[in-house]
Structures are given as structure tokens and as C-alpha cells.
Amino acid sequence: MSLLAGLLSAVAQPSGSLVGWGNLEIRHVPAGTAFTRIAAGGARSLALKKDGTVVVWGFNDSGQSKVPENLTNIITIAAGVHHNLALKSDGTIAAWGNNFSGQTDVPAVLRSVSAVAAGFYHSVALKSDGTVVEWGQNPYSDKAMPADLRNVTSIVAGWNHTLALKKDGTVVAWGSLRCGQSVVPAGLSNVTALAAGECQSLALKKDGTVVAWGSQGSVPAGVSNVIAIASGEAHNLALKKNGTVIAWGNNLFGQTNVPSGLTNVIAIAAGFRHSLALKNDGSIVAWGANGLGESTVVTYLDNITALSGAYSHSLALKTDGTVIAFWGGPAVNIPTGSTGYATFAAGLEHGVALQRDGSVQAWGSNNHGQSRVPVGLSNVIAVAAGWNHSLALKNDGTVAAWGSNQHGQGAVPLGLSDVTAVAAGGLHIERRIYG
Predict the structure, then answer these.
(1) Taking the domain 304-433, which CATH number applies?
(2) What are phi and psi of 120, to 5 degrees?
(3) Residue 326 forms beta bridges with which residues?
(4) Do 25-298 and 304-433 share a fold?
(5) pLDDT of residue 117 exceeding 70
(6) pLDDT (0 to 100) of residue 407
(7) What's the CATH number for 25-298?
(8) Cα separation, 33 vs 415, whole angstroms
(9) Of the ranges 81-90, 102-111, 323-332, 353-362, which one carries the lowest mean pLDDT score?
């Protein structure tokens, strides 16, 4: 395993999985792997893998994209606006993210849970006996959960309201009444699934039609043969029996622009202003808002042997000697066709890679000469990258440096030899000498 740290912390494990900490916003969705469930929250996305582990990407201001350590045996997930819930196979719940209203304070005695839902300020759990438990504080609640609520089969949470589907196909709603989202249409029955957004509620009926109420009380004509529904902040999705997706509502960020040709979809999720679709091959398609990476799909980071993160980008080295760059900035522009890398380092806005033949390649920003590798540099065994300078350790124990020297960080001390490792910080370097 190799570890290279920049201005965020991340490592690649021998298995090829990634672990990150700090305010890490991985701006991609790991595609090409076997996901079984998806969920979308405020500017982030969640996916449940076949092995019972969870992947999260997108905004991380409250730790909502940092999956708790050793979180395994998960059977379903839920994403609120700023927090997440994961239901374990033993009927207990894990919660993480923003807790300003107690929404991640799972009741200590809560057991035998069969489903979870997450809103803005509150969390909801459905127990195997058909009863519902709610926690957190919803300051916009105008209508309390019925004390005698029983025989519930599924639950969903909007921003400030909750919907419960009963065994007889009827719906119960409580919470905010501001947009009428908690006022269930009279006579609504034969419901099989529910969805809720900020101010809207949806119900899927047995006949494949959809009923809406609240701020978006109308459904586009021709929405039929639907098998699943989802609601974002102000947009909605419907999955049809033929594996295609229909979207309607607010489209300011393209969240209702379903990608052309999207088929073979088996599940859908709607986030704040983005949308997700899970295909039958286990891959994920995303569209809509992407200011925090919640909709960016790139090559899956598998078979990783090293990872390096810096201010505006991240780099990953694969076992086949190729490098993947992500998260933006000039340093993501890796030279086309570059392979055979042994290791690499990420600077502020540039990257440096050591090739297996002992030569060095660099790319990205070059305003200080940090990407201009000295002519004839060879026999290199290690590299390092500072903010605006680069280092190379040769097999004879000497060091080469190039790029910014404003603070002497590029001026290698005369006579320096017998060096075994190098590292570069923002404005300085470190060296380790033995002997």
C-alpha cells in the first residue's frame, strides 16, 4: 500500500477500496460495480453494495459523506437533506451526518426495524410489528403522528413531513401543512408505494398510475405502467415497467432531463436537485446538479495501489500502471496514453509520476516550472510534489528539484546524498538520511 497526502487525507487499501477523512468531497460516483440500492440526499448520493457496505459521494460539510468505520451488513439506506440512515441485518440502525435537531440520535432501545426514512430535521423507522418510531425535532410540523398508527408497511420522509402506507393500501401523513403535502387526497386507496419531497407527496397505485398532492399536485399525462417513484426537492421521477424513466417538476439544474437512451433501470432516487438511476447490470447513471460532484460518473476506482490527494484534484494509480485523475483542476489532464507508472504525487495543481523505467513525467499547471521535468533526468526511484515544486530521488541517493524556489524549497543543499525518501510540503521539503 502506498500513501501520499496533500491537503485532504485519503488512502487506498490493498483490496482497492478507498478510505477518506476530513472534509473530503469525492467528486465521482464509483461506477461499474455491483450496487443493489441507491439513495440521494442534499448534494450527495449513496449506494449500497452487494457485500452490505455503503458508498457515499458529494457534499460533506457535516460528515454526511463520511461512512462510519466498520459499517457492514447493511440491507437498506436512506438519505435526508444533511444526514443518512443505514439499516443493518440485525434490525438496528446506524446514523451519521448533521445532528442539529437530534436526527442522528437513534433511540438506544430501538430494535426490530424493517425500514428507515430520513427528512430534513427528523428520522423515521418502521418496526417489524407495523408501528412507527420518529426522532429529531421538526420545527415546521403542524400535524403530529397519530398515536394509534398501526399496520404500516412502508414509510417515506419529505423535508418536513412523513408518509406511511398501511396494509390496507391507504395513506397516513403528518408534519408540515405549508404546501398541503400532509393532506392526503380523500378516497385515496390501492396504494403500493410512496415518495415525498420538500413540499410534494406522491403515491403509486396498483394500476401503475401516480397521484400527487402538495405543491406539485399534477402528474404529466401518459404516466402509466409505473413500478417505482421518487421525489427530490421539487422534482419527481417515475420508473416504468419497461425500464425507462419519466421525470417532471423543477428543471433548473437539468434534474428532469433524463439521459437519452436510458433503459434497463431497476431503481431510481431523487436528491436535492439531482437524479439517480440504478441499472440491471449494477451500474449507476446520474444527472442534474453537479456543483458538489453528486452527479459525476467516472471509471470505477478498482484495483487501486496508491492514491494521492491535493487541493483541487486527486490521483489514483491502478495495478495496470495507469493513473486516473478526478475532482477537477489542471492536474486532471493526464497525458493521453500514459501507462507504466510505478508511483506518483499530486501537487497543488500539478501531478508528477515515476515511470517503471526510472524516468519522470509531469503535467498540469506549470506557472512556476513545476511540470517542466529536467532534461535527462533518469534512474529515479521516488517522486514528491509540493504546491508549486517537484522532487525526484535518484537511485544514487541524490535529489533533483524543480519549480518554485521562492522560499528555497527548490534549492537542494549542496552535497546532499544517501537520501532514501523525499516528501514535499507547501513551501518546504523534507528529507530522510541514514548512515
Answers:
(1) 2.130.10.30
(2) -80, -55
(3) 314
(4) yes
(5) yes
(6) 83
(7) 2.130.10.30
(8) 51
(9) 323-332
